Amino acid sequence: MQRLVIVSNRVPAVRDRKQPAGGLAVALRAAIQDHPCLWFGWSGHQIGGDGADRPLGVDTLGNVTYATIGLTQKEYNGFYQGYSNGILWPLCHYRAGLMNYSRHDQQIYASVNTLFATRLAPLLEQDDMVWVHDYHLFPMGKALRDLKVKARIGFFLHIPFPPWSLMRSLPEASALLRALRAYDVIGVQTEDDARNMNEAFSVLGIPARARVFPIGIDPDSFASCARAGQTLPQVQRLQQDLRGMPLIIGVDRMDYSKGLPERLRGYDTFLKRYPEYRGKVAYLQITPVSRGSVPEYQSLRAELDQIVGHINGTYGEFDWTPVRYLTHPLPRELLAAFFQISSAALVTPLRDGMNLVAKEYVAAQRPDNPGMLVLSRFAGAAADMEDALLVNPHDSDEIATALHKALSMSGSERRVRWERLRSEVWRVTAASWARSFIAALSEVRTA
Ligand code: G6P
Question: Which of 66, 63, 45 is nearest to 54 (CA)?
Fold first, then answer.
């Protein structure tokens, strides 16, 4: 059996390895079960000094060996915070104006990619399939090839890829695209992303091709989480507190790509235009702080504090809080259970690679009384979720109308829409995503 080598910036923390809680670890669970694996990446820790003798942390659990390295403060700043999350992240989410471009960070990004390749290469065997993940590691395949690695190497981009006209605002955009030639398979989430990347390849005369591999969730496990979660005491407490009011829910990392200020303004418009809901509806927004040391994330937090305060001050009553707003994470089972007892979810990113919360929301519903999903047209997930209430997340009136529609929709219409959404969520899953990517990578050898 061939070994699968997974490379990603984030590697599941030791405490999460037995029972992965989210992200890539859940998505790759199926692939990991099928193959012996090596998972290589950042340990999540910063190390002192210049990193000259940094150790490789190696740890095996079942058929997976985890091999991780620490990053120095300078690398963390330049590679993770700076180039990956201060430049590539906004650009790939169509927000060139939020880029804090720095050539210095670009150099550190390149050197960390080379460092990853240099530390991984000696661990590789000829027959391995190497699968590199996400924007932190665009040039890593090229760095491996420069070290004469012959194994098959695939790359999957989890976030959107913008049109070339936007991408080229990155000074090294063409080098970055050229580096992708090193990969045998290049995967993206949606047809739009593939079109954009392939357009860039053709403008630059690069003989490479991006293919679409939409990611999904493990719907059975999420659905059973939602059922099991019903017995949690917090669920009873919330239900008592709701006193029969319908619950609207939102769950997002605190990120400007998620359209949170716009969403809250949509809820404000909803309360303004439909005053009959005041005091009669609850909105729970769970937004764990993310990348809190990047300046744009700090100003987003301040903006959200201000908008939530404004809405609660304007419409609140001594016994009713319009927005219940949390900035800490909740356990997966509790989230799934809250999804199940809610009447509607707001998933309204301005731009998102896929958005798995949308799929999880569908998986968590009860067939006899499903809640409605209000979903941004600009989430990758929208391509196959036409039965959600699709909105333009910039338009607060559209959000308000959709919320009213979600909360007043007949049970039979909700069930029909949910059945169709459900079959999509069970058709394209984490397992099908991983297996089809790995199948494409396996075929390379014979090609
Ligand atoms: C997105 C990215 C992932 C990243 C995750 C969490 O989903 O596609 O690569 O790991 O956000 O962000 P963080 O910066 O905490 O790793």
Answer: 45
* Cα–Cα distance for residue pair 12/324, rounded to 1 Å: 30
Give percent of the chain above pLDDT 70: 100
Percent pLDDT > 90 in the chain is 93
Ligand 1 midpoint to CA 150 (Å): 29
SS3 22: coil
- β-bridge pairing 57-61 and 64-72: antiparallel
Indicate the angle between helix axes 233-242 and 332-341, nearest 10 degrees: 30
Nearest-5° angle of CA 77, CA 82, CA 87?
A: 170
User: Can you say whether the dihedral through the CA atoms of 41, 89, 382, 254 is positive or negative?
Assistant: positive
DSSP helix/strand/coil, 163:
coil
Report the separation in Å between the CA atom of 261 and the middle of ligand 1, taken as the mean of its atom positions.
20
Report CA(22)–ligand 1 centroid distance (Å).
Answer: 11
Amino acid 149 reads V
ipTM: 0.98
Q: Is there an atom of ligand 1 within 6 Å of 159 CB?
A: yes
**Annotated catalytic sites, by residue?**
158, 352
- The Cα 28–Cα 51 span in angstroms is 30
CA-closest candidate to residue 270, choices 395, 186, 419: 395
Q: Helix, strand, coil % (nearest 5) of the chain?
A: 50, 20, 30
Whole-number Å distance, alpha carbon 66 to ligand 1 midpoint, is 18
- Does the pLDDT at position 27 exceed 90? no
Radius of gyration of the chain (CA): 22
Ligand 1 binding pocket mutation candidate from 39, 93, 253 (most atoms within 8 A of CB): 253
Examine the pLDDT at 206 and tell me if it is beyond 60.
Answer: yes
- The whole-number average pLDDT for the span 185-197 is 98
Tokens representing residue 372 in the block: 């409605």
Q: Which residue lies with its CA nearest to atom 10 of ligand 1?
A: 10
When pLDDT is averaged across residues 231-236 and rounded to a whole number, the result is 98
- What span, in angstroms and rounded, lies between the C-alpha atoms of 407 and 266? 15
Give all strands (DSSP E) within 189-321, no chain letters: 210-212, 247-251, 282-286
Ligand 1 atom index nearest CA of 290: 15
Ligand 1 lined by 291 (C-beta under 6 Å): yes
Ligand 1, closest atom to CA 84? 14
The confidence band for 380, taking pLDDT boundaries of 50, 70 and 90, is very high
